[in-house]
């Protein structure tokens, strides 16, 4: 395969747009964004200001390992009796404590998902169906006009089998491994795959 795409990336102006970056960097960001969506979209929908939202958060914080520490880290200093009253709906926290409860809940949920990357892998693997990857080519407006490529366009791939390694690499901060994975992904493109070594944005349908 030819790697002509952007082997001299930056020589003709492509690096003048900071959003034009190597796919490994953009893939890492896309994984982080997908993880954040998994954390927020799978969490409690009702606001903490509602009885339902407060009760659900308090149940999670009082029955999940690490909940007491999460509340302490969020600045909650209430005694156990008060915590119990909040959980049972017998007492309503002050606004400052409501904010702290919300913070503690989201922090604990995020920590639990980050500490269990298997759930994120399962989410991306999607029962063997994989995840749709949307690849946005670099912004060529900053490239010297004679060096622009007129055949770059938005590309979409259904990607399977790489997500376990990708999540492990993201967690470990292993950019080298993410580069290998990105090379594997774009290898499924046509002969212009090298032109997608550097991209502007990667969207994950997960």
Write the layout of secondary structure elements.
Blueprint: E1 21-22, H1 23-41, H2 51-63, H3 67-73, H4 80-88, H5 95-114, H6 117-125, E2 131-137, E3 155-159, H7 163-172, H8 175-186, E4 198-204
Antiparallel strand pairs: 1-4, 2-3, 2-4
Helix pairs in contact: 1-8, 2-3, 2-4, 2-5, 3-5, 6-7, 7-8
Protein name: Transcriptional regulator
Description of the molecule:
- This protein has two domains: 14-38 and 119-204, no CATH class; 42-116.
- The chain is elongated and about 65 Å long.
- The protein has eight helices and four strands, in the order E-H-H-H-H-H-H-E-E-H-H-E.
- The chain has a four-stranded antiparallel β-sheet.
- With 206 residues, the protein is of the alpha+beta class.
- It has helices at residues 23-41, 51-63, 67-73, 80-88, 95-114, 117-125, 163-172, 175-186; strands spanning 21-22, 131-137, 155-159, 198-204.
- The model is unreliable at 1-5 and 10-14 (pLDDT under 50).
- The two termini are 30 Å apart.
